[in-house]
Amino acid sequence: MVKVSSAIVSVFFATLAVGNLTSCKNGNSDKAANTADTSLSDAKRIDSLTSQKKKEIDFKFATLEANIPSPFDVVNDLHGYNAPFKKELLNPESNVEKYASTFKKEVNFGIYGIDLAYINFYGQNQDMMKYFTTIQKIAEDLNIDKVFDGFAERFKANSENHDSVVTIVDNVFNATDDYLNKNDRYLVASHVIAGSVIEVNYLSLNLIKDFKRGADNEKLFVKVFNENLAIYHMINLFEKFTDKDSKELLASMKTYRTAYDGIIKSAADLTPENINKAIVLIDEMRNKVTK
Description:
291 residues, 0% strand, 13 helices
């Protein structure tokens, strides 16, 4: 059974919605045409999961957990080093209307979750409620709003109390981690984590590009570089999946990783010029799952 890292999962509210992803409310005929996979279980979308394959996926998750910092920590550090709040970097909440397929919803759960963490650290309460509502909408579309509602009311009631929000988030993530461990949600968890990894790299590169690098913030640059290593471990994980969406995302990650490695080989290579080149690369990959 997969042991999904609570440190990885715990960066986004949306992850709690990985349970019961077996049906979706279709708003119109166009959505119906684009959600053919919505009613499929993880096992069907992955093809067959042999005992050996489960062990291999379990190992890949463990490797991912052991080798990258928590994206939540990266967002926290960006705030701690006084990176500015740039709303234009967020995935607009209006984009949620575009996400009809199960895959797009799963990946953007992770993306919106990182955005929500970023918003929360900067105390942008109005935007925080908008993004929480956006994530809640996806939960409702996926017919798992009952799982979500218990935490939603507590979040809304305490949204202006940062410490309370952090505690609520922690509770959500622990419950989610427990669910994932008990229910072998391999594919859903992978898609959501991929979204969070893409988004935290996108945000961090965009936020450090104007930093004047020095001894006081060197640790941040190292952490941002290490966070990007998650793409490598995501590639190893996604090579175990056989569904069309995972294959396409795998190809995108491989293209990104090859180009990135040609520019940045260590944290020392995170110069303003190289960061701008890397931003072009991560933006291209991100656009494929958010547009």
